[in-house]
Design brief:
With 240 residues, the chain is an alpha/beta fold. It folds into 2 domains: 206 residues, Rossmann fold (3-Layer(aba) Sandwich); 26 residues, no CATH class. The protein is 32% helix and 18% strand. The strands form 2 sheets. A 6-stranded mixed sheet has the order 5-6-7-3-8-9, with helices on both faces. Strands 2-1-4 form a 3-stranded antiparallel sheet. A hairpin with a 6-residue loop joins strand 8 and strand 9. Helix 4 runs parallel beside helix 5 and helix 6 packs across helix 7. The protein starts with a strand and ends with a helix. It binds adenosine-5'-triphosphate. Adenosine-5'-triphosphate binds next to helix 1. It holds the Pfam family AAA_21. Keywords: ATP-binding, Cell membrane, Ion transport, Iron, Iron transport, Membrane, Nucleotide-binding, Transport. This is Putative ATPase. It is found in: Cell membrane.
Amino acid sequence: MFINDILIDWNRIEEDSYLQTINAIGGIERITLTNPVTFFIGENGSGKSTLLEAVAIAEGFNPEGGTKNYSFSTYDSHSELCDATRLSRGTIKADWGYFLRAESFYNVATKEEEYSKGPGGDPQHLHEQSHGESFLQMAQSNFREKGLYLLDEPEAALSPQRQLTLLIEIDRCVKEGAQFIIVSHSPVLLGYPEAQILTFDNGPIHPCAYEDTDSYKITSLFINNREQLLNQLFRNNDIL
Ligand SMILES: Nc1ncnc2c1ncn2[C@@H]1O[C@H](COP(=O)(O)OP(=O)(O)OP(=O)(O)O)[C@@H](O)[C@H]1O
């Protein structure tokens, strides 16, 4: 494990900051990571990306994504949580890492192409591929053993089949000593065996079993009772 704990110093955050009102993280001082793969799950707006971004910046990544060598910025939007976050690290330092966010992927792909055309680079043509193809290629070419990877909703670009491919890539790297922290709503990705799943729903961030995640429960309810569920949903509009 390269990161064991995420530590937040709330004295460094203004009392009237919106961060104090995010139920999952407001006032939380320590989040312990127990497994090589940790998932952040929870409703839209529950604070997952905010925390992942703070971890990424504390680790030295560019807020928009990429490797630690990426220094571009198209929009400065990171929160003050970044300045208040420290990481408690393991004894071994990650010799490589990547921060991949679905929302700023286009800008990172542009930079990746630019950097790859430099001296000694392997020219990439990410913009000549589909969103999912280029996203997966970027992951495959940047995932290495003994790396630290922070992924924000990687499923956004990927078909279910390619999500399985991503799981294979994750597993390959974990077996070689990599660590992943992944924000996800995908019942496919969340199914990775032995993952630590931390939910941002229903109060302070806490562990959750795979079968108790909304992603799993709602997807299985939908698949197993589609007609009944939709009939009720369209009639009552309040089943969920
Ligand atoms: N600059 C800001 N000012 C005020 N509130 C903000 C700001 N940035 C984010 N928020 C709020 O912080 C909360 C957490 O946002 P965040 O993007 O971390 O959610 P999330 O769990 O990643 O959601 P999603 O699953 O939709 O990506 C949201 O309610 C959001 O509206």
